[in-house]
Write a sequence for this structure.
């Protein structure tokens, strides 16, 4: 059977060149980067080279990059670490209602511990407007955390403008850039970003690696305490092979990012045009222009999302309803609720996230399958 | 995630559709997840001679709908009344925990249809 | 040049069979274990299989195993997560002065936040005695955390007895078993362990993976909040390839553990005998009998440890002074200070940790090199 | 971790040893890391004609010891007085931050030896 993977926002396959680069670091160059012998120094060197490249990719200094286990840890480290360091001084955090659970749940946890949190509501496209951020600022606000690109809708927030507001008010600014990193140009200096989260497995790198960028001079407590790894920011033996893989994945993004973005934009438009002409009663979600190329989020009237997904899966097509993380739960996505999607559409939403492997041919196959499936399921549904 | 049996019933559900001028109609929904089900039955001399369902819902809801209708056809009403969501889930070789409520939808749909029939014939016994 | 790796307590090379098992999970079976399509379900299944095996290996249920990024995260999760869950109820933790920094630094951090901590001092062999634990218990004690095997000395604590004491007093018992797991039989039920940390890269598995065992019914807050991964215990896309590798590494340990322990014991005795007969003024540290087979910790009078290490390294021999993690710092190891090693020996300590690759021949070569090096460095030192 | 130059000096240090009946002896130690150094010098007509060191310490300490003695031989005392630990670290192509104090040990060792010499000849100038 044909296999078409259109769930690149959930995770990506490791690029062939990335895996190739990683291989020697499992069995030959396997040293602990903290050891002073040659095995250790070899590991130390590649970790520092990786730090250098990743830093350069977002306009940071290498000393500002902390390697850790992924996007969720980065988000937790940012929110918990700053809250701990600012305890007694800062009591209010501004974030949004469309953040990834790694931010929302952490903010909820901090709320239980005496921090107050404002969750800004996006407009119907999933966009957060800079004036909303400005209006929410209070004297005791110490942190603004707004995601760069929303993982369900692909909507892109005006991070540079929000960063400028934060800076004007002397407030820290964190952005969860897990879905933007490697897909859009990011410059932490120009955008006034103080902290930024990114994850390797979303950009054809291995799972289990990520970074938190922490601007020089920022006071932050550790989340994972212990030995003085990562310039005393994050304890734990460095995942050398993972970091080397992340490094290579970033290098590839540097090279292909612009051209891939253009290709995926064309592909997504092609996809949507075909859908619109072959399937009735479907709308596209997300911002019409402010969005990343790869994501196409659609709601089908009168069809349930999971049934769609399973049916697609049986035809070898991998997509997602909302985020991968909320699958297995029955609640409609908090993002779709935040954009106030009509109730009858909430449960009929699919996210296709295109990536390097996808072709026009994949889309033809998918739309054919999808229109057949939608028709079948609609026929099965009671008329309401 | 789902058992083979759930997948079979999802792909080829039995008794999909709607009986015209049915003797009983059950319509239930689950407001939390938005699932909806409509069951129609034909009853002749205390026996369900035909049953059809329409369901809006996920894999578990559709499979459970199919599963709840299957053993009912040709059975006396009295027996079908005893079918519970536990039976349905078991017959499907289990359901993921978070999807158990979908089998409840099926049980309730069937009961609502029976109920409607009893109401129509003014039988003094209500199931729900 | 010959390469002899004798730093297996710092990290180990990934076993060939382990790497083999991991490979398909980078590019082919790369799904996000939370996705409901086949790519995701394939990943989900192997993660659950791994959980099953790892649980079985220590007598736990699979629902009691949380996968995470390594030993340091496990230790932090245990201490921080319990402290948060018991806030208001428990105020005192008992641990030891010879724990890994991942415990000591976390405990220090908790102390800054109002928890009081007792750091038990070991005897001169690095052993913690059960009665010390019992004596330190206060009404407000909610947690005892004592490491199973010390990473510098190899000394093995009487975990079962300490677990029994904890249970009698209704106090939680955590053990950092990073250096014991895969080397000694562990049974969490028989030993009354409530929480246990282990790390993959110490047992020929990949870096960046570890577990925290959490006994059913234990109240613990998350350290990394977010999506409901790992039965809502630890957010973050699962490192599937890493977990699969850890699984395989555990399987191999199951098979070779007993016989490898016997082999390493013989090898270590051979090593020590050769040292004693060829180098004057050297003592062995750690417990004479209660220790794991692989570790040989020695102090050389009148020689500085780093010089020893560098000189060994130039001959292709990788060893460590104290723990890998404290290298780069100048402070003598807190463990050696805790066993009250004579000041003139503190700075002349080496740890050799033997592993699967080491042979008698390696030891002959090492002892020859070592005696030459010690002689040269001693000649260079001022007579004091 | 260390520069090539540090490694060279560590492997083949210059001027290891002890001068018999020296004109100046410097003995210094660093209590935090336990490093110790002993420098002996021979001085003839205001010029250091021989210098030897013995050091207990890590790679940086030994390399710095070697490096501090090297340029001194044959130099007038007045010039050697100006050597600082910064010079030593630079000559070694840099040292890791945590090891910088080792170059201070070398500077202090040399100064202590010069000091001792000045004391012996009752010169009214003390360096330390
Ligand atoms: C006893 C002990 N605990 C914890 C750790 C930390 O484990 P990891 O490096 O996987 O974070 C180590 C090793 O570094 C260790 O030896
Ligand atoms: C926006 C966003 N933030 C955070 C995460 C979490 O990243 P990770 O899976 O690496 O923990 C994800 C993806 O899962 C994401 O899409």
């Amino acid at each position: 059977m044909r296999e078409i993977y259109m769930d690149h926002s959930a995770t990506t396959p490791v690029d062939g060149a990335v895996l190739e680069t990683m291989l020697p670091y499992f069995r030959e160059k396997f040293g602990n980067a903290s050891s002073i012998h040659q095995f250790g120094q070899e590991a130390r060197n590649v970790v520092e080279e990786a730090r250098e490249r990743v830093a350069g990719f977002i306009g940071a200094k290498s000393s500002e990059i902390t390697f850790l286990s992924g996007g969720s840890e980065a988000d937790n480290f940012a929110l918990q670490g700053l809250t701990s360091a600012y305890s007694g001084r800062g009591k209010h955090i501004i974030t949004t209602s469309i953040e990834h659970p790694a931010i929302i749940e952490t903010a909820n946890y901090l709320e239980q511990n005496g921090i107050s949190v404002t969750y800004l509501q996006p407009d119907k496209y999933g966009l957060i407007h800079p004036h909303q951020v400005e209006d929410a600022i209070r004297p005791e606000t110490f942190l603004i955390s707004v995601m760069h690109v929303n993982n369900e809708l692909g909507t892109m927030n005006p991070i540079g403008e929000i960063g400028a507001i934060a800076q004007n008010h002397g407030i820290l600014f964190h952005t969860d850039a897990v879905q933007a990193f490697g897909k859009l140009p990011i410059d932490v200096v120009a955008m006034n970003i103080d902290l930024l989260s990114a994850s390797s497995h979303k950009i054809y790198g291995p799972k289990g690696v990520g970074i938190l960028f922490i601007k020089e001079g920022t006071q932050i407590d550790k989340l994972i305490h212990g030995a003085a790894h990562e310039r005393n920011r994050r304890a734990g033996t460095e995942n050398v092979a993972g970091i080397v893989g992340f490094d290579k994945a970033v290098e590839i993004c540097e090279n292909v990012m612009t051209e891939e973005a253009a290709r995926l934009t064309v592909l997504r438009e092609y996809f949507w045009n075909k859908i619109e002409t072959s399937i009735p009663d479907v709308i596209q979600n997300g911002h019409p222009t402010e969005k990343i190329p790869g994501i196409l989020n659609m709601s089908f009237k009168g069809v349930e999302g999971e049934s769609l997904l399973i049916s697609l899966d049986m035809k070898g097509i991998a997509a997602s309803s909302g985020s991968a993380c909320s699958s297995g739960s029955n609640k409609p996505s908090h993002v779709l609720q935040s954009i106030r999607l009509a109730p009858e559409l909430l449960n009929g939403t699919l996210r296709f996230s295109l990536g390097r492997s996808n072709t026009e041919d994949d889309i033809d196959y998918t739309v054919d399958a999808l229109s057949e499936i939608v028709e079948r399921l609609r026929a099965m549904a009671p008329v309401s | 995630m789902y058992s083979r049996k759930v997948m079979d019933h999802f792909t080829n559900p039995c008794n999909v559709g709607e009986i015209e001028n049915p003797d009983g109609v059950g319509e239930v929904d689950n407001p939390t997840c938005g699932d909806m089900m409509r069951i129609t039955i034909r009853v002749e001399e205390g026996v369900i001679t035909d049953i059809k369902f329409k369901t809006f819902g996920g894999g578990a809801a559709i499979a459970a709908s199919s599963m709840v209708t299957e053993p009912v056809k040709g059975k006396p009403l009295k027996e079908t009344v005893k079918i519970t969501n536990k039976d349905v889930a078991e017959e499907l070789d289990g359901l993921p925990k978070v999807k158990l409520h979908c089998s409840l939808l099926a049980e309730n749909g069937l009961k609502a249809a029976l109920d409607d029939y009893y109401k129509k014939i003014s039988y003094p016994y209500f199931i729900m």
About this structure: Strands of chain D lie at 24-30, 35-44, 47-56. Chain D has a mean pLDDT of 88. The two ends of chain D are 32 Å apart (CA to CA). The longest strand of chain D covers residues 35-44.
